[in-house]
Amino acid sequence: MTSSATALQSEEKDTPLKIQTLQELYEQRAGGQEMPHRHQDTEILWIRNGKGSLEIDLKKYNMGSNTLYCISPGQLHQLEPGEQAEGYLISFPEYLVNSSGDEMELVYRFNLFHLLTTSPGISMQPELADEMDEIVRRLYKETHHGNVLSREIIRRYTSIFLIYIARQLDGAMQLSLQSRNVKLVRSFIELLEKNYMNWKLVKNYAGELSVTANYLNEVVKKISGFSAGYHIRRRVVLEAKRRAVYSNDSMKQIAHWLGFEDTAHFSKFFKAVYGKNFSDFKKENYSPIS
């Protein structure tokens, strides 16, 4: 494994919920800049007041008051809160995102995080923001001064917090829940995250999910707006772009790492999906992790 690959390794799973204030993050860095990194937890960043910048998978966002961002597991990101920024960075472990006694709540929660990650920079209504602030303060207190019952209390407060966010997204949430095929899409996305380096064809995922490739394409397009094949290609190219920008690996090394035996094939694949040559993209965006 190259040193650049080591630098990009994800953190271990099954950590408890973590909450930090933006002021704490700013003070920890002592004026230094955070390097791009990724986690295996889902993170919600809530800017209560002030400004800052956030880069997620090479896209930069200027943050303002009462805006909320969601960072999915594995997304390469870099946060720079302003000195006067107020808010929270909440890290949700998998057991809080994907555990519930109610199957519909599971689907609902999955769709909520999906909507958050596909709609960066959601502005919260002032009245909802005030109530959310109180919930997060209680969560913060439980995570820092809790007892043996804190895990269950945290779970309850987390559900309430997510419900407040869902209220802001009510129309989009109802639209995304109108099909029972949401569970199939969720399973596809989970398989894609685990297998995109080796499985490049829709039939690979369809076989694992016991459906036909055409059916999987239709369902995924109905729920997300894009076919399963589109998501597969974009996921592979996204990882190639991450490596191109934040590692010293050559195109040949990146192609091999992503499961392409022929570098020329990878080059054509990248251009067909992204619309630009790999070499040109790397020259324009290269920024290695030190």
Automatic annotation (TrEMBL):
Task: Supply one GO molecular-function term.
Answer: DNA-binding transcription factor activity
InterPro entries from the xrefs? Answer: AraC-bd, Homeodomain-like_sf, HTH-like, HTH_AraC, RmlC-like_jellyroll
Instruction: List the PROSITE patterns.
Output: HTH_ARAC_FAMILY_2
Q: Does the keyword DNA-binding apply?
A: yes
Question: At the top level of its lineage, which domain of life is listed?
Answer: Bacteria
Keywords, in A-Z order: DNA-binding, Transcription, Transcription regulation
Ranges where the HTH araC/xylS-type domain occurs:
186-284
* Gene3D superfamilies (alphabetical): Homeodomain-like, Jelly Rolls
Transcription regulation recorded as keyword = yes
Protein's name in the database: Transcriptional regulator
